[in-house]
Amino acid sequence: MEWGTLAVAAVGAVFGIGATLVADVLRARRELDQRWADTKRVVYVRFLTSLAQAHSRVTVVAFREEPGPVREQAVHHAFLSDPQHADAKSVLRELAIAAPDHIYRAAVPVYEQLRATRDLLASHPVGPESPEYQQLSWPFFKDLDALQQLMRDDLRPPAPSRAQMMRSRSR
């Protein structure tokens, strides 16, 4: 056998092994990215759901027009008693671990607004149309929507680069 044939075979083998390794590394990276995105999606949904459900539970209890101490205890109990064992504070801590910093920083004020709403409803007999309640609930829902949009943007796959688009067009 000639040396040239052996050299070509060796170069081909090295190229084949290298291409396989690169493909495996890229596939593993893509799978890891997908698992991380799935984890974040679950935490995002849990947090948004826990906020909305806590708000609903608190308002339902508060608007029953119970006397002061009974209302206060019922509102605090409703805030903390999530039937899915995913109260907002616990999921906020999950969010602190899983979410990028800008999303966590946007989530904390929304949680604080929910707590302010809880405190108002626990301490004052207000109705759904009262200005005090409206001053807290409107910003809460507005910021909740903005937070949801931030989370959606974070979960969106990155847009392909110009080079990737040009390569896909040339095929």
Describe this protein's structure.
The protein has 171 residues and is mainly alpha-helical. The protein is built from six helices and no strands. Helix 4 (101-123) runs antiparallel to helix 5. The protein starts with a helix and ends with a helix. The mean pLDDT is 86.
> Separation of termini?
39 Å
Q: What would you call the structural class?
A: mainly alpha
Element-level helix/strand string: HHHHHH
- Give me the number of helical elements: 6
Rounded Rg? 26 Å
What about the largest sheet? none
| Low-pLDDT residue spans | none
Shape: rod-shaped
Count of individual beta strands:
0
Beta content comes to: under 5%
Mean pLDDT: 86
Q: What proportion of the residues is helical, as a percent range?
A: over 70%
Secondary-structure blueprint of this entry?
Layout: H1 3-62, H2 68-80, H3 88-98, H4 101-123, H5 131-155, H6 162-170
Main attributes of the structure:
171 residues; mainly alpha
Summary of the model, kept short:
The chain has 171 residues and is an all-alpha fold.
